[in-house]
Design goal:
about 120 residues; alpha+beta; 4-stranded antiparallel beta sheet; 6 strands
Length: about 120
């Protein structure tokens, strides 16, 4: 996907998530949101959301997801970001830098499902 398309998708997902979170907090003021966004191996945007009653549980879950993403991102070529209630819990994932064009994925050969894809 082109960087501009990824940027638009990211912004739309964030807006949708924020709107839903605001509506949910009106019904349940103690609710907490954990959002996770990442660039997949085929250069698309992946995302996941979880809701928690406890802020401590949301932080614990977010930190667990950071550990998981950092393990997958050992080579630094899989940008991601994790947010709790809209605030970044990890700044080392480089997703925003990637979307801003400040960081480029440098992987040349990526093997996925026995298919070799060449990126330049």
């Amino acid at each position: 996907m082109e960087l501009t398309t990824l940027n638009k998708e990211y912004k739309l997902l964030r807006e949708e998530s924020n709107e839903k979170f605001i509506k949910m907090t009106q019904l349940e003021p103690e609710i907490n949101l954990v959002e996770e966004y990442w660039i997949t191996s085929d250069h698309t945007l992946g995302n996941a959301r979880c809701y928690f009653d406890s802020y401590e549980m949301s932080i614990e879950y977010a930190l667990d997801r950071v550990d998981y993403r950092m393990t997958l991102n050992a080579d630094g070529q899989k940008p991601f970001i994790i947010l709790v209630n809209g605030k970044t819990i990890n700044t080392k994932g480089q997703l925003e830098s990637f979307l801003n064009g400040d960081f480029e994925i440098k992987a040349e050969n990526i093997v996925e499902s026995n298919v070799r894809r060449l990126y330049s």
